[in-house]
Specification:
345 residues; mainly alpha; 15 helices; single chain
């Protein structure tokens, strides 16, 4: 698939529900594969509502009903009130765990300054530096698989903010999102470019080809932005999430491009990352000042939520990085136990 091609329709199509992972997904899949009905009460969550394999997959698939859905799930489930009640129950536990991860936050009237203070603070080991400098080809492929759940729908979760913003903040969001969607050209959409990177790495670009391999720590990164995006009351947190994405992208994206170059991959494989290096050099200014700062100026009551969203994505991404680095430093796969990338290639 040389640059300039687009992803064929069969690889864009929604995939069936993956295998269940525990009591919650067992119960949920049993109901979702039937026509909509009163779903009743779910079993108690048996693992961590944020990072647990069973809980994270269940929440991820509940959110997916608002994206492309599943061919083996009736689309009417999306707004079924009994299923929404189950999702609200899971989200309450998820939200509590996210706030535990973030911890107490000091109030800040200057949102751009608070974001810069967060991002300039001490950090843990760098995942992108590891991949760029010493990561193996297998580890590079694993990293690409982990990111596929989000990158193959890149920008979609943040786009939920557009009808919920006004004025300058809305204009700033539109400017960022327009680039994410390739200014209206399918071949330039970042989703399409990531599919190209997967193909060049010898991996499948099909939507959710690797969902069954992704641990809860990976699914949590996408669940967080979907949670923020699907709740109007959390629009401030969603803006803080996007601001951090844009303000921290340039250097890591350059490192991933360098990793691909070190392993002998050409421009087609690197294009996704190199596009981000160029675009996000501008986006980081727009996101921090015009978007996050602009929203706080328009709606001062949302300032705390913006900072919370920034801290939340930082904490959950740090956990994601720790999982990968700990696994690789132990010469183990970072994907689900007993599985390898090749199993779904």
């Amino acid at each position: 698939m040389p640059y300039g091609d687009i992803v064929p329709p069969y690889q864009l199509a929604a995939a069936p529900l993956p295998a269940p992972r525990g009591p919650f997904t067992d119960w949920l899949w049993h109901h979702l594969r039937q026509p909509p009905h009163d779903i009743g009460r779910p079993p108690p969550l048996a693992d961590d509502p944020l990072y647990g394999d069973d809980s994270a997959l269940g929440l991820y698939c509940l959110y997916e009903l608002h994206y492309r859905g599943f061919p083996d799930v009736d689309d009417r489930w999306e707004w079924d009130p009994t299923l929404l009640a189950v999702r609200a129950h899971v989200e309450a536990a998820f939200d509590e765990r996210v706030r535990q991860e973030v911890g107490p936050l000091a109030p800040s009237a200057d949102v751009p300054a608070a974001l810069h203070q967060l991002l300039n603070g001490p950090g843990g080991p760098s995942l992108s530096a590891y991949v760029a400098e010493i990561g193996t080809l297998q580890q590079l492929r694993e990293y690409a698989v982990h990111r596929s759940a989000y990158q193959l729908k890149e920008a979609d979760p943040h786009t939920w903010a557009l009808p919920r913003l006004t004025g300058g903040a809305k204009a700033a969001m539109v400017e960022i999102q327009a680039d994410e969607y390739g200014q209206g050209f399918e071949r330039d959409m970042h989703q399409t470019l990531y599919a190209l990177t997967l193909t060049e790495l010898g991996l499948s670009p099909a939507y959710h080809a690797y969902l069954g391999l992704l641990p809860g720590s990976t699914l949590a990164t996408t669940n967080l932005v979907s949670y923020f995006g699907l709740h109007r009351r959390l629009r401030g947190a969603l803006v803080g999430h996007l601001a951090v994405f844009e303000m921290t992208s340039v250097e890591p994206m350059g490192r991933y491009a360098a990793a691909l170059r070190r392993h002998g991959f050409g421009p087609a494989a690197r294009h996704f990352y190199e596009v981000h290096v160029v675009a996000d050099a501008h986006h980081q200014q727009v996101a921090g000042t015009a978007l996050a700062g602009g929203l706080a100026a328009q709606e001062p009551a949302l300032a705390r939520d913006i900072v919370f969203g920034a801290h939340a994505v930082t904490a959950i991404e740090a956990n994601f990085s720790r999982h990968l680095l700990t696994s690789w430093q132990a010469d183990a796969t970072s994907l689900r136990i007993g599985r390898q990338v090749a199993a779904a290639s």
